[in-house]
Structures are given as C-alpha cells and as structure tokens.
Specification:
252 residues, alpha/beta, Nucleotidyltransferase, domain 5, 6-stranded mixed sheet, 25% strand
Length: 252
C-alpha cells in the first residue's frame, strides 16, 4: 500500500492507495505544534481502522504547503513506518510541464491536482481546488500547466466575516434551501454560498472567453460537493491522490 499525504493549511489528508485505488481517506487538523509521536500514533490508528499494519505500507509520498509541519510529520513516517517519504518538489519527476513565469511558485498541491486531472481526464482541463484558498489551473493537451488564478476559499471568507464583525455568528458552510433568508444564520449561509458560487461561475465563464479551445472543468477539495452548477463537469474528491500516484510512478 502507498500512503499519499496532502499537508494543507487547514487539514492534513491521508489517502491509502491499494491496488492503485484510493481505499480510504482520513483528515487531521493542521497544527504546527503536533509532535512526531502524535502524528505517528494518529497514522497507526488510521491504519488499524482499515485493518492494515505498518508492514503493509511499502512507501509514502507527500505534498505540502506548510513547511512548519514537514519536519515532525516526516519524522513520524520514518520513526513509525521505517520509510523515508518521497516529497513532491524540486528534483521530482512529475510528467507535467509548467509554463508560468515562476514555476517554483506553483504549490505542490496544485501540481499534484493538475497531474491527477491530466492522468485521469486528459488535457484541456481547468482544475479547481476548493480549500483554504480556491485555486484554478489550466492544463492543456500536452500536459502543460499554462496559467492559474488564486482567490479566497469560502471557509476563509466565512472566518473573515465573523472575526471582523461584533455580532455575526459562526455558521456551518452548506448549501442553503433558499436565498430568501429570514434570520441571521440563514442569511450568512445563503450569502456565503451564492457569493462563492457566483464567483466560481464568473471565473469559469471568463476562462472560456479567453481560451479558444473547448475544455472540461474538474473540481476537487472538501467543499466542492456543496456546489450546484452546470459549469463544473466533474467533482473528484480524490484528484490529488490520483496525481500523487501518477507522480510516484514517474519516480520509481
């Protein structure tokens, strides 16, 4: 089994890949003060939940946008699994071309998303990852990432709204039943949802206007499933793990 680890700003997501399929995924809150022992114990517990033992893990691959967590998490893998993980970054073959002004500025998570989209759905794909930030990256038919866009994630917008106001409460991020809200909680939920949805649809429309070829839209991330729009062709929650498997194959 291969364990793929995506260390993001909000969550660390582990994907257990068995027989080239994602068998299970688990989430850990990203905290820079977790020790390697804490991370290691959580990994062992997740393995046990699926009936796996440490000896069943033959390798680990990591993408990370949180450098502060990397040392302790990597140390946990070495200590508890006896494996030095592969880290997506400089020197790793990805099978992707990056044609932007500063290729090194592209996040490892975005790179893995794009690799997963190309490996699974082919080129001419707009890849949207809805996490702490919402990112858009375009992959052409030659496995080339040609452009991208970054904006606020819906949960980040919700946190900004409540932290910058005195009386607005925190709310669950979900799809509202109606935009005709009659109380504060539903008003915030509907406002966040439709503002976020409208922004996504407008950005996708603009990509279609400026890219002459037809393309498909693939979305991923924890909040992708709440959206209801015909402009997104595929929602793939395991996209990053498919990309990490693709990258892993290129390097073994």
């Amino acid at each position: 089994m291969l364990i793929a680890v995506d260390i993001g700003n909000t969550n660390i997501v582990l994907g257990f890949i068995e027989d080239e399929q994602v068998a299970a995924t688990y989430r850990i809150t990203t905290k820079s003060n977790h020790t390697s022992d804490e991370f290691g114990i959580m990994m062992l517990q997740f393995l046990q939940l699926k009936g796996f033992a440490p000896r069943d893990v033959h390798d680990v691959i990591i993408t990370s946008v949180v450098p502060k967590v990397m040392h302790s998490f990597t140390a946990a893998i070495v200590k508890f699994l006896g494996i030095t993980p592969m880290v997506v970054g400089p020197g790793i073959r990805t099978g992707m071309n990056i044609h932007i002004d500063d290729p090194r500025s592209l996040g490892a998570d975005c790179l893995a998303d794009c690799a997963g989209a190309y490996a699974t759905y082919g080129g001419r794909t707009l890849v949207i990852d809805m996490g702490t930030a919402t990112t858009y990256n375009y992959v052409d038919e030659h496995a080339t990432i040609t452009c991208g866009l970054i904006t606020t994630g819906i949960r980040t917008a919700a946190e900004a709204l409540t932290s910058m106001t005195a009386q607005l409460p925190e709310v669950e991020i979900r799809r509202p039943t109606s935009i005709l809200a009659k109380d504060t909680k539903n008003a915030i939920q509907a406002g966040l949802y439709y503002d976020f949805l409208g922004g996504i649809e407008r950005i996708i429309t603009q990509f279609h206007r400026e890219i002459p070829e037809d393309f498909q839209v693939v979305a991923t991330g924890g909040l992708a499933r709440i959206l209801d729009t015909p402009l997104i062709d595929v929602i793939d929650p395991d996209l990053i793990f498919k990309g990490m498997l693709w990258i892993y194959r290129k390097n073994i």
